[in-house]
Amino acid sequence: MRTVPPPGAAGPGPRALLRRCLRPRWRPLAAGSAAALVRQVALLSLPLCAQRAIDDGITRGDLGVTAWWAVAVVAVSAVQWAGLAGWQWWANSADAEAGAYLRTRLADRLAVLGDGDVPGGRGDLALRATRDTDLVRIWVHGLPTWVVIATTFAFVLPALAALDPLLLWVTLACLPPLVLVNVWFPRRFEPALDALSGAHAARADAVADLLAAASSVRGLGGGQVLVRRHHTASAAVAAATMRAARVSAAWSAAGPLIPRLAIVAGVGLGGPAVLSGDLTVGGLVAFTSWMVTVTIAVRVAVDRFADRVLELTVPSAAGLVERDLKQEEARHG
């Protein structure tokens, strides 16, 4: 029975495998990215339409202009919906094809392997054929998101500079705290969840021991020992739950707080500009809408940077597929 070469000798590894997954699917990914671009431009154009409706129609009491911009909002919303539908359609197609490709390759290799042929055995690779393949699918599906993030900043920052440079500086000032919140809290929350999971497991063991051994050790005075062990484990669960809850509560509060403070600062600085005529009411409304979009873009960008799917794809599983591909290329070369 053939054995799998050690990691590093089986081929370029997970990154090369992901590139091989993407190359045949560049068309749906390109189409999904183009649709995502259309969707995001349309979404970011809605505040501009609202601005013109307020400034040119509502504030002047012009019903005709207001109605015209209302129709424009409906039309732009339809374009936004169509772009979103296309984005999701092609992204789903690309990730489904990549997942089917990986599962088929791994299943073919698993069918001819024994338990001693790979580290961890066939069962470990069979698990990776589902778990790790799903991670790759998520990664593939999220690739057009980078177009959305780039479009958001390329559109919003110049638009804010055109409205009022002060609004641009307010937006730029809120970006570092937003990034910090979305980086720091997940790193605290994950260990807290791990500790909570371990505490629950320890209490489950204590309960199982208490139920299984209570009758046999009752006469020996061991029942109280098991009860005290259960109480200690329960106290550890309560403490771990509170630690995780504190991190979660702080994260939930700090996330929305920063953009809201930026909106307050923008309104505080933009209000006098409106009164002096340097900024319009519609421009201030557009600023608040764009701040919400920028906040979402920052959070998603941090999540994408934190995505470690390239390292999570197991080298042994990647090596199997890489070797299979090289053999096919040699046969058809």
From TrEMBL:
<dbReference type="GO" id="GO:0005886">
    <property type="term" value="C:plasma membrane"/>
</dbReference>
<feature type="transmembrane region" description="Helical">
    <location>
        <begin position="281"/>
        <end position="302"/>
    </location>
</feature>
<feature type="transmembrane region" description="Helical">
    <location>
        <begin position="138"/>
        <end position="160"/>
    </location>
</feature>
<dbReference type="GO" id="GO:0015421">
    <property type="term" value="F:ABC-type oligopeptide transporter activity"/>
</dbReference>
<dbReference type="Pfam" id="PF00664">
    <property type="entry name" value="ABC_membrane"/>
</dbReference>
<keyword id="KW-1133">Transmembrane helix</keyword>
<dbReference type="GO" id="GO:0005524">
    <property type="term" value="F:ATP binding"/>
</dbReference>
<feature type="transmembrane region" description="Helical">
    <location>
        <begin position="66"/>
        <end position="87"/>
    </location>
</feature>
<feature type="transmembrane region" description="Helical">
    <location>
        <begin position="257"/>
        <end position="275"/>
    </location>
</feature>
<dbReference type="InterPro" id="IPR011527">
    <property type="entry name" value="ABC1_TM_dom"/>
</dbReference>
<protein>
    <recommendedName>
        <fullName>ABC transmembrane type-1 domain-containing protein</fullName>
    </recommendedName>
</protein>
<dbReference type="InterPro" id="IPR036640">
    <property type="entry name" value="ABC1_TM_sf"/>
</dbReference>
<feature type="transmembrane region" description="Helical">
    <location>
        <begin position="166"/>
        <end position="185"/>
    </location>
</feature>
<keyword id="KW-0472">Membrane</keyword>
<keyword id="KW-0812">Transmembrane</keyword>
<dbReference type="InterPro" id="IPR039421">
    <property type="entry name" value="Type_1_exporter"/>
</dbReference>
<feature type="domain" description="ABC transmembrane type-1">
    <location>
        <begin position="30"/>
        <end position="310"/>
    </location>
</feature>
